[in-house]
Amino acid sequence: MPKLDKPKILVVNDDANSLFALTSLLAQWAEEEPYEVIAARSGEEALRQVLLHDFAVILLDVNMPGMDGFETAEAIHQRGRSANVPIIFITAFVADELDRLKAYQRGAADFLFTPVIPQILHAKISVFVALALKNEELKQQARQLHQRTNDLVSSNRQLLQEIEERKIAERQNHAKDEFLAMLGHELRNPLSAISSAASLIALPGVSMEGAVRAKKIIQRQSQHLGRIVDDLLDLSRAMSGKILLNRVPVDLAALIGNCLETYRATGRTAHYKVSAELEAGWVDGDVTRLEQIFSNLLDNALKYTAPGGTIDVVLEVDGDDTVLTIHDTGVGISTELLPHVFDVFVQGTSTIDRAQGGLGIGLALVRRLTELHGGSVDAESAGPGEGSVFSIRLPRIERIIEKEPEIMDTNEQAKPNVLLIEDNDDGREMMAMMLSCYGYDVRSAPDGLQGIETALSYRPDVALVDIGLPGIDGYEVARRLRANSDTSGIRLIALTGYGLAEDQRRVLEAGFNMHLVKPVDIESLMKAISSLTNPNATPTAAPAS
């Protein structure tokens, strides 16, 4: 325990000799007992000392000029901090009963008469000093107990916070485990279908119709795998803030109408009652990302609505906002889940045989993409079985008068010669075969150095160059081709699995004309080649997806 402060004794007497005698006597005992003596010559000075210090006992002369002992005692006990300080009156006169009563009414603890008997004074002082020491010890223990209590409360609060954080971490880990299990399920399904279809085509007895169906299955499931990879990459980019929007004025009604038409054409809404009320509403946004927002919301409605259910799509203008609302009559959202539907790795209850599939990251992506557009997203549901309502609010802009589209020259032109530089043998062979089937003269190379040699001898119109090549990468291939006057005019298209804005910037700085992200379907690839070789088209860099 920390060392206790010495108790203090105040001696008040207007007679200098009496004051000296008392303080000297007390000072002798102070060498053996832990207390400190303070002297005062008047009641006023005594009050000043009381304001400065706490005292174990006060020895107070009754007969003082000006402010006598009774008045001084009354003033001392009127102050809250010194109200309980014991006062021993010292007087040269024998006090009668009325004087004693008056003294006790003023808070006197005892009387001493002069001449003071030292042994009696010592005994009385020792009692009050011991009492002050004990009170100070109790106060110190109380302070320590209070500090311990505060420490325990703080520790308990920290422990509760750690427990809650651990629960949250466990829930997140559980959600991630479920997500990884679902990812494995979603990847194996299309891979299994592709593997089976490829095996079917190789069978000797397969019919032409069967082979055609198998090819369509491979194409459809490959596109499905591409969408899964795109969702994963988009979520990662969105969470890390690496998505850059290519903003243009967009008629959201036209965009949603086109998306709905695509869904109907592919049969994805065939078993649902889908209605649309679309008021013209213009926003400043990225067309690809806005389509992604709407598609993810519509996919979510289809996923959790049984066939035969109703899905209503409404677009309207509300003040300075364009508001998109999708209402479904599906399974609804529980009260516990509703605040978390836009969190990463959160899904509603799903079954193994669910028809729509998905990774459960679509709504998290919707929220992030909406926020990047300066908007907000909200979900409502009356509970399980009551359907759901998802609303997107985006800042509205004034309607843009669109220019008449230019009529494209559709005259058949000679196909340009193409050089394909790709280190993946299967990918290189398939792409070369597809381009050849569409009339392109194609030559290929498995690495950058052979690609440059082939370019010098073949002099292609267009070179499709993979970025991740062995030896020298695609960036270096582009730089060397541009540095050579014999190959500097070749149109260069980067084919890469890297799709961030930084990757596109590096591609263009290296000398490429265009940046395409794998996998690239044949129609998109031919459009890209045409845009670079058609004299009526202006070559531009394709946006990274």
Automatic annotation (TrEMBL):
It is found in: Cell inner membrane. Keywords: Coiled coil, Kinase, Phosphoprotein, Transferase. SMART domains: HATPase_c (SM00387), HisKA (SM00388), REC (SM00448). It is a multi-pass membrane protein. Residues 8-129, 417-533 form the Response regulatory domain. GO terms for cellular component: plasma membrane. One of its GO terms (molecular function) is phosphorelay sensor kinase activity. The keyword Coiled coil applies. The modification 4-aspartylphosphate is found at residues 61, 466. It catalyses: ATP + protein L-histidine = ADP + protein N-phospho-L-histidine. Transmembrane segments: none annotated. Its main location: membrane. Its EC number is 2.7.13.3. It is an enzyme of class 2 (transferase). Residues 128-155 form a coiled coil. Residues 182-398 form the Histidine kinase domain. This is histidine kinase.
